[in-house]
Amino acid sequence: MPVLLIHTLSGETHRFTVAQDLSVREALDATALRVRAACGGSGSCGACLVRWLKGEVNRPGLADYQKLTAEERQAGQRLACQLRLRGDTEILLDHPAPPSVWKSIPTDHLSAIPQPLAHLTHDPYGVAVDLGTTQVRVALWNRRRGQRIATRRGPNPQGGFGADVLNRLEAARARPAAAQEMADMARNAILHALRDMLARDVGEVTPMLGQIGQLMVVGNTAMLALLTGRGGAALLDPSGWEQSIDCRPDNLAAWQSAWSLPHAEIVVAQPAAGFIGSDLLADLIATDFLHGPPGSLLVDIGTNVEIALWDGRVLRLSAAPGGPAFEGVGI
Question: Which residues pair with 154 in a beta bridge?
């Protein structure tokens, strides 16, 4: 895999290993560095200028000739969205975009594209959200074509209320204002990730928001409870850990209005029971788990670890706190 060296005017050098034929813009979008962009990678905005220093890359294309003068091309100026890596390459990033907490998810971390929904006649776009304790992951889809348009991952901003789910749930129970603040944090994070994708990977925001037909959220049960304001008290009672938890939102019309999604069906996929959330149910569907051989084990590793065991007849589910194992309980 090619090595990409990025030099900045401040004298810093950043080294990344990236996939062959990836554009410089795509490579940087998965890191803390960014180029300026506003056209979805077509090259029409001309904002993602970088300076090619040396290395194996593709030749300038039509967008480079349209947006750059002969003198600029001769000096090594290229459009980062059109500059593709054929081998080890060095680039000068002299006009970076402002830093952002939102990064693209590497393509090798993504699952296969689902079947297209060719019957859709309007509002073809959809948004998938995985609301985790530590990270929020969002994907924008063209549902009619079965095409993934863009992805983002970023930190769950609720971390200030505790790294683990129980501290956050206890804070929400003790103070209604904290519960509302955490709900707003999660909802705003989803909105910011969506708008970042639309602005950078599509090139327009408001018109696209009006064409989103569905937004679906999955997550561990605690995160769904904190998002919707329902179910948190039941999770703090051990007698309910094997019971279904109701995390259904009260007023989805208000969410539609706040997110400027006038035509979107907003779905908060409900958890299985206790701390076994709908993120594990999404895993089961995505992997077609119940059609696998007896003795199959699926583990969703995160701050909240969820496990599924299939013996060919019965599906057994469980969950355990994984955060302390990773964090050493503060040691």
Answer: 136
Q: How far apart are CA 199 and CA 323, in angstroms?
A: 34
Cβ(153)–Cβ(137) below 8 Å = yes
| Cβ–Cβ under 8 Å, residues 100 and 189 | no
Residue type, 235: L
3-state secondary structure 190-252: HHHHHHHHHHHHHCCCHHHHCCEEEEEEEECHHHHHHHHCCCHHHHCCHHHCCCCCCCCCCCH
Identity (one letter) of the amino acid at 270? Q
For residue range 147-202, list pLDDT tens digits in order. Answer: 999 999 999 999 889 888 889 999 999 999 999 999 999 999 999 999 999 999 88
Q: Rg of the chain over CA atoms, in angstroms? A: 22
Q: How far apart are CA 307 and CA 319, in angstroms?
A: 6
Q: Where do we find the tokens 């001309």?
A: 46
Amino acid letter, residue 245? I
List, in sequence order, every residue forming a beta bridge with 273; answer none if it has no partner. Answer: 276
Pick from 148, 150, 146, 151: nearest CA to 120: 146
